[in-house]
Amino acid sequence: MEDKGSDEVERLKTKFLSVWHNVKYSWALKTKTSFSRNSPVLLLGKCYHFKAEDEDDVTDAHEAPDEDSVMGNVEAFRKDFTSRLWMTYREAFPPLPGSSLTSDCGWGCMLRAGQMMLAQALVLHCLGRDWTWPEALTLQPLDTETRTTIAAKRLVTSLEASLPGLYGPSGAGSSRIHQVLGSAEEADAHMKEMYHRTLVSWFGDEPTAPLGLHKLVHSGLMMGRQAGDWYGPAIVAHILRKAIEQATDPGLTGVTAYVSQDCTVYSGDVVDCHRAERAGKSGTSDPPPLLQNPPTASTTTGLSDSRAVVILIPVRLGGEKTNPEYFNLVKNILTLEYCIGIIGGKPKQACYFVGFQDDSLIYMDPHYCQSFVDVSTSDFPLQSYHCPSPKKMPFTRMDPSCTVGFYSRSVQDYERIRQELSKVLQPSAREKYPAFTFVPGHSRDHIAAPEKREWPFIRDPRRTITTAGDFVLL
User: Fold this and answer.
1) What amino acid positions are annotated as catalytic residues?
2) What is the SS3 assignment for 5?
3) Average pLDDT of the residues in 276-289
4) Smallest Cα–Cα separation from 109: which of 252, 236, 260?
5) Rounded distance between C-alpha atoms, residue 195 and residue 86, angstroms
């Protein structure tokens, strides 16, 4: 009887917290983010200038600037930022594995940040870095909207007729769409719209979504994390890797993930990930043609015998606080187009870092509760998956624990990434140790024949779960 009463109290407590979090995170903050007009803004490898003549002023990134006083591409920045996929708290979705929770309000922010970083990798994979959502600039700032925007019905009748062709022989789908729409330009736009929707649907809040919260929580259960627990950036990296590996959707067979060990990227392991056979599950059809040859500036696209690799590197950039010596490293990393961002934030409050201006990070905030969206319909609303309002945070407030992400399309791409990052990672005169490093060979070789390495942060060997985000300061 006592256990039954205790369970009832626990259920009531869970329900109360769920209701409280839903109310707490259902309102967006009405603060506006200001950007200097005289300093460049970096966003995932792209640089924007909001320069003003004879003026030391600021401009709101989600408001149209005065064209007479601002020289630069504020609108281009707004469109680029808003086009990034935004994952936030949701409510009223099916219960999560191992629990009765139907909302992740108050605890799922790091998982949402991880989804955003992985989504950026898939945008690079499917659509390329230059892709932007045509409707990005039509979104209203968050301080004028409540909950999920109810979207107008989209014109998809012609596309539905061509859907079966998308997963047929290479080229058949695009040819069918060309016939339906009548021009190459319209066909390309319609194709990109389809992949945009497909990308979002992969992250849907339902059990069948391959990269949705339900799948991530299920992977977390295998690592000792329950729905409602706090997830650190390191364990989320491993959860994302597991989700990608287990995904059976044809569009995801050409992508895998690699997570570094003890701040070390083993090049042999990454190359093996690239060269491994596609996650080809016998009986599955080929991925859509655009996924095999996305519109990107990379010179190594279209390698059908190679898988792209999402490289995730959990690091700790200091002790209790982020060491200022690492600030420039973070800036340098965010200037790279193959960087897919950084998940971290403040203690117990995760966010997704996508850029910076001067001494402030630009980030996307998952702490906003929105309603469940049924992504199984062909015309589900996309507005709630895009954020029109960037936020900024001083580097000094950044928590030292984070996971850095990169997208590598091929072995050749990886070699270029390794060479460029090795230069960026050169430690300063004051900071002796790099945040992470690249090592030739495979991790198994170093485990079989361990050698002494001077590292500022290593995992506690007494821990049996190597996926935790805990480090020991030497």
Assistant:
1) 109, 365, 367
2) helix
3) 47
4) 236
5) 16
Please provide residue 208's backbone torsions phi and psi, each rounded to the nearest 5 degrees.
-85, -15
Q: Measured between alpha carbons, how far is 50 from 35 in angstroms, rounded to an integer?
A: 8
Q: What is the pLDDT of residue 270?
A: 97
* CA distances from residue 411 to 141, 222, 303, 468 in whole angstroms, order as listed: 41, 31, 10, 29
Mean pLDDT, rounded, for 387-394: 93
Question: In Å, how far are 15, 27, 124, 233, 439 from 24, measured between CA atoms?
Answer: 14, 7, 34, 24, 46
The most confident of 59-63, 71-75, 468-472, by mean pLDDT: 71-75
Instruction: Tell whether the model's pLDDT for residue 278 goes beyond 70.
Output: no
Q: Which tens digit of pLDDT belongs to each residue from 317-355?
A: 998 899 999 999 999 999 999 999 999 998 778 999 999
Neighbours of 326 (CB within 10 A): 22
Alpha carbon separation from 7 to 4, 50, 102 (Å, rounded): 5, 57, 18
H or E element, residue 411: helix 411-424
Other C-beta atoms closer than 10 Å to the C-beta of 239 total 25
Contact (Cβ atoms closer than 8 angstroms) between residue 270 and residue 255: no
Helix, strand, or coil here: 423?
Answer: helix
Residue located via tokens 């009548």: 182
Which tokens hold the place of 429?
């005169």
**Alpha-carbon span 159 to 172, nearest angstrom:** 14
What span, in angstroms and rounded, lies between the C-alpha atoms of 470 and 234? 8
- Give the pLDDT confidence score for residue 378 in this predicted structure: 85
First to last CA, the chain: 49
